[in-house]
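hey so i finaly got around to running the thing on DUF2264 domain-containing protein from Reticulibacter mediterranei. pasting the sequence first so u can double check i didnt mess up the copy paste, my clipboard has been acting weird all day
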Amino acid sequence: MLHPLVDNPLRTRADIQEAVRALFAPLVDCFSHGHARVTIGQTGTHYATRYAELEGFARPLWGIAPLLAGGGSFEHLNLYHLGLANGCDPHHPEYWGQPRDYGQALVEMAPIGLALALAPRYFWEPLHPTTKQELARWLSTINEVKVGDNNWLLFRVMANIGLATVGVPYAQEALQAALELHETFYLGEGWYADGPTMQRDYYNTFVMHLIGLIYARFAAQSDPERAQRYKAWAGEFAHDFQHWFAADGAALPFGRSLTYKFAQGSLWGALAFADVEALPWGVMKGLALRHLRWWARQPMFQNDGTLSIGYAYPNLNIAETYNAPGSPYWAFTFFLPLALPETHPFWQAQEEPLPDLPTIQPQKHPHMLLCRTPGHVFALSSGQHDMGVRHGEAKYAKFAYSTSSGFSVPGASYGLAAGAYDSMLALSDDGQHFRVREVPLEARLEGEMLYSRWSPWPGTVEIETWLLPRLPWHIRIHRLRTSIKLYSAEGGFALNRTEPAQPAQYANSQEQPGAALAIYPAGWSGIRDLQGQRQGKVVVADPNTNLLHPRTVIPTLLGEHEPGEYWLVCAVASETDMTSCDEQWQQPPSIREREQQILARYP
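ok and heres what it spat out for the 3d tokens, dont ask me to read them lol
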């Protein structure tokens, strides 16, 4: 397998420049004859193949344009000169097509707009006058068609920034209207919702703050108040967002579009691009480069060295319906600070570790409690949901998400192994087909406690859930009321069960009344029933259900419940530090005053 980053230390600006070139190199053989389309694979999306191939062409520009703007070398510009000419030519067989309402082409206008704005010397000036005219016409259609009332508004902004920079007519009114509507999604304290939804996820970094900060730099003179506002909002967000990263650079897997990989860390470079020292320069540089190095250690490539659909490894099971083979190259948004000179404070700073952060940090906008233990960050979560994406209940509505355990999505609908119900209470009326929390009826954050009310069988089953951190554990309390017989399976954190090199190191599992524990070289994961009512079981999940590890086990508590009311209380923990297992497992948290108050709330 070709690994483009295998020998790159990823510590200096020159290292990061080389990373762009190395990651792009496997794409060269994927360009079409006319160079306007890039075919990386044959998997499908809900949009036409030509747009998937446009995606493969355009998204690398997120990294190539900053590389060139910052004085870096790139030897394949001829591919883009000819590709731009043919892709926007209605008479050429590789024409990208007339953009339509809500069409995928509108997304890919953003990196083309960035290329024109950042590096017109390379992407505009060499073009034939006819090509310039056709490219401007094609990009301008984003002002004439409908875009989604969500992060897509900023693609209109990015296209117009590009047009304005190269001195051709652009739609100032459409640009300003897009920004005004975009600002209505602002929640406060640096957080955006992705349009009128409950999503408070990585789209804050993938698009909202990313393009907001690009706009802030280009509009510093023409729209200074808004530019300053966007810089201030992104700076506020950075203080919450740093809690989403573990000491080794891993980011918290959560939500959709995780196939964009190290775009998770694009905020740190975007802040530098806009000259926003939200955190000390060395801290932001450390956050960015540790994150990229973490990704470089993952098997995220296909055999030819192209980025794969999936998260840490190739995995179509987690993909959204809009994830084409070129989609992962949104990751190149990480490379925006390459547009800055070597003398910029971001590049001059020495990498610094994360500051001393609180071990528990409530974040009201994403409805999370961020929890930090040595080498591990996990989030307790209640309140977010998105049933419009594949496996939305797993990507948004689990009880917990982890930098070392990731999360799992179902592989099929029958049985616990296929369902892979980590960090969920799964309920079944037949013992084989399970339902989980999807859209809560009610959710709130109360200090260092999360509450939700949900109903997997409306009118028949209702559950109230409380989540409380007790590091390295967390406690879950469920009040279950049912008018039908139910089978329950409550999963702890998934654990990597990849076999070690030496059989003598092989793991073991403990299954007993009230507890389940799994131990592997990757660490340990356990769940304890604090009332001793349920049976412990270590479920061997189906392969490729977890987005971090191809093979996992899930410590689980199993129960049966006749019609009536039940209190289910458990403690859950997982650590990569094997030395902590004996001590922590033998001393689980007890039910304290806070939990007793919850249990006593109802007669």
